[in-house]
Specification:
heterodimer, A: about 210 residues, mainly alpha, two-stranded antiparallel sheet, 6 helices, flat, B: about 100 residues, alpha+beta, 3-stranded antiparallel beta sheet, 5 helices, 3 strands, globular
Chain lengths: ~210, ~100
């Protein structure tokens, strides 16, 4: 995704979240729910200003990363090769945080339990990260020097692609389960998304070492 | 979806190239030997895939090595298009 498009959409999302916040600012209490029990009861509260600073801090941080990626790409920094994937991931983060901001403010006013939607949104971001993970592997111009380096390169590519697929599948499955009204049911999928690629990497590395 | 990605994935030969590259990085020569297609035609397929950002390429001496660079959604799309045998309509048939 091009930087200009990602940045434009991010600005639109941030402005919508900010406009909603300003529109209901006079009706907001000083504190708002920050944590819920599985039963949907509020177990912790935080000042609204802290929530606002954190959310818009993340949004601004993501936008700065997009701009830095653009500058780096123009200057030819090698680590910036996967800039377009990074832009899509950063836009996903901005969309999540902006959506969370609006939804949590609304939940504060109406007293609704945002658990299922929040977990669903987090799982959607995991799926988005997984989708682009396979693409984000560095495309090295460096030619592997020896067999061991060639093996490491092969293992890196295989495990990164698998991690992307597992994260995508687990993210979508977790999102469906959470939105169906079982936010706790998404937890195993989040664990699978993180652990499965690590286990695969260890197994593949060992099997390659045994063959070698 | 970008037209270039649709164009890249709507050709059975290009989908086959993607499938083979799923096994790992491969040189243009090795890939060409797997198909009964002329070198220039294969070069055209490589260019379409590269322009769509579906494969990445690096040069080593005389050889160009290609590696898969797809997102998971693009992988799924390629599988679905393969399943339903979708292919591009040749230019001459378009009206």
């Amino acid at each position: 995704m091009k930087t200009r498009l990602a940045l434009s959409l991010s600005i639109v999302l941030a402005v919508i979240a900010a406009a909603y916040h300003i529109a209901i600012a006079t009706r907001l209490p000083e504190t708002m729910p920050a944590r819920w029990s599985p039963g949907g009861e509020v177990t912790a509260v935080a000042p609204v200003w802290l929530f606002t600073v954190l959310n818009f801090g993340v949004i601004i941080f993501a936008m700065v990363q997009m701009v830095l990626g653009h500058i780096g790409h123009r200057k030819g920094w090698r680590w910036i090769r996967w800039r377009e994937s990074a832009n899509a991931i950063l836009l996903g983060v901005v969309a999540l945080v902006s959506g969370m901001h609006i939804y949590l403010l609304n939940a504060t006013l109406t007293g609704a339990d945002p658990g299922a939607l929040l977990v669903g949104a987090v799982m959607l971001v995991i799926a988005l990260l997984g989708n682009y993970l396979a693409k984000s592997q560095p495309v090295s111009e460096h030619v592997p020097d020896d067999v061991n380096e060639h093996r490491r390169d092969w293992i890196n590519r295989r495990s990164t692609r698998l991690a992307g697929r597992v994260m995508f599948g687990a993210g979508i499955a977790g999102m469906v389960v959470a939105l169906a009204g079982y936010p706790d049911g998404a937890f195993p999928f989040a664990v699978i998304a993180i652990l499965a690629p690590l286990v695969y990497r260890v197994v593949v590395t060992r099997s390659v070492q045994q063959v070698g | 979806m970008k037209d270039s990605i649709w164009k890249a994935l709507s050709d059975p030969t290009r989908r086959e190239i993607i499938k083979i590259l799923g096994e790992g990085e491969m040189s243009a020569g090795d890939l060409t030997r797997r198909f009964e297609i002329s070198g220039p035609s294969m070069s055209h397929h490589f260019n379409v895939l590269r322009e769509a950002g579906v494969v990445s390429a690096r040069r080593q001496g005389q050889q160009i090595y290609y590696a898969l660079d797809t997102t998971v959604v693009q992988d799924l799309l390629a599988v679905l298009l393969d399943l339903f045998s979708v292919q591009e309509v040749p230019e001459r048939s378009k009206t």
